C-alpha cells in the first residue's frame, strides 16, 4: 500500500449500484488525499453521477463503502456530510437574489451566523472571483458566473472535500476557463476536489490523478503521465512525401529511439520515443535518403489515447 489510508479525505471501496439489470457503478474503488484534485473521466452514461451521488450520501449503495474524513457515509449519516460539499450539475441558486444574498441565504441554512457568516461569504466571493459583482442579481450573470456562484454555495461550510459534477457542461469557452480557474484556486487553498468530466483537457489541466471510468468500471487510474505510460508511451511521427521511401525507411529503422517505420505510397509513419527531441534528426535522415518531404506531423498520446487503450472505445462518442 503506497499511501497512509488514515490521511485520506475520501475512501471509496468496492462501490456498487444497480438499476434493474444495469450495473451503473461496478466495483469502483479509489482514494483522495488532502489537497488532491481527483478526476473521474468518462463519457456520458459511464456512471459518474451515480458514483458521486453515493459518495455524497444522496443514493444508497448496493455494495461497498464510502468514508469521508474518517466517517462512514450513508444516506442517513450526518457527520460525513459536514466534511463534503456537492456542486450538482444543475444550477441551485436563486436568480432574483444577488451573489451575496444567495451565499448569505445558503450560509444561514448551514448554520452560519453573524460575523462568521459575513466573513465566510466574503472569503467565498473572493475565492470564486465574484467579489466585484457581489451586489448584482444572479440572473444578470453569464453562464460561467452562475456556475461559479453554484460552486461558492458548496464551499460555505469549508468542506475538506468538494465534489463537482461536470461543472462546465453547456457553457461557452470563456466561461469554462473562468470556472477552471476557480477550481484551480481551490486546490491552492488545500481543498481536496473530486471532479467529474467527459473533457480530457479539463482532467489534464486540473487533476493530480485521474480515474478512467467506462460502463460503471474504473478501467485505469493514475497521474496523467502514469496513464500515458499504459499506452506504451511512444509517439508517432508522420513524414509525408515522395522519393525512395523504402531506402529511407531502412535507414530510419537504424536510428536510436526509432521503434518502428512503416512506408506507404504517401510517406512514412515512425513509432518513436520522445518525438520532439528526435524529429529534426529524423527529417535529416529522410531528406539525406532522397525523400522530398511535403509535411511533418507529430502525434503524442493523450488521455484520449489512454481511454481508447484501456476501454477499446473512443472517449468522444
Ligand atoms: N435512476 C436511474 N434509474 C435507472 N437508470 C439510471 C438511473 N440513474 C442512472 N441510470 C443509468 O445508469 C448509467 C450511469 O448513469 P450516470 O448518470 O451515472 O452516468 P454519467 O457518467 O454521470 O453520465 P452523464 O454525464 O450523462 O450524467 C446510465 O446508463 C444511466 O442511464
UniProtKB/TrEMBL annotation:
Keyword Cell cycle (UniProt): no
Domain ABC transporter: 10-240
Entry-linked Pfam families: ABC_tran (PF00005)
PROSITE patterns named among the record's database cross-references: ABC_TRANSPORTER_1, ABC_TRANSPORTER_2
Keywords per UniProt: ATP-binding, Nucleotide-binding
Organism field: Nocardioides malaquae
Protein name, entry field: ABC transporter ATP-binding protein
InterPro entries: AAA+_ATPase, ABC_transporter-like_ATP-bd, ABC_transporter-like_CS, P-loop_NTPase
GO molecular function, one term: ATP binding
